[in-house]
Amino acid sequence: MKRARYFGAILWLVLALGSPVPGAQKSDGSSPTHGKPPAEAMTQATVAGRSDPEYKIGALDVLRVDVWKEPEISRLVPVRPDGKISLPLLNDVQAAGLTATQLSTAIGDGLKAFITNPQVTVTINEINSRRVYVTGEVLKAGALPLLPNMTVLQALSSTGGFTQFAKLKGIYVLRTEDGKHVRHPFNYKEVLSGKKPEQDIELEPGDVIVVP
Length: 212
What we know:
Layout: H1 2-18, E1 46-47, E2 50-51, E3 62-67, E4 75-78, E5 84-87, E6 91-94, H2 100-111, E7 120-126, E8 131-136, E9 142-145, H3 152-156, E10 171-177, E11 180-186, H4 188-193, E12 208-211
Parallel strand pairs: 8-12
Antiparallel strand pairs: 1-2, 3-4, 3-7, 5-6, 8-9, 10-11, 10-12
């Protein structure tokens, strides 16, 4: 009986020593969870919490530039009125007119002269170049950041509601088309009830929603 317990204890000790330890480093010294940057980090563009790889960066937008393993270069940067951002080593980089993915590629190409295989992620933290405006009988009039696929109803939901004098049947979107001001009607009650959903159009930069 004692001999069986002795061999049992030895077997347990051998198994315990041979088991991998959670979070242990690999033989090459790298952590199993931090050995390589995630592939999606180099291609994903995030706009105000939504994935929108086609969004074109504009002046006054605020970007987060992350260079893997290079904290001295990684930073939050505003896009200047001239459409450029400033980064260490590269100085001025054209950002306006590019998608986040295109800008990350441009920054990575520029850093190759200084860093081996740079991995760059660009995230759009604030959208300030694309705005719409709400004016008239609403509680919170003013400019709103234009989110991807934002509609009239979605924009109005950010105004805090209407005043008691608002004419909900006479709301319209004022848009500049071919140099002329064009009105797009929006009957709030009918859209909300589902009678005229086609009036809830997708907004474009510079649109003005007028609540008479």
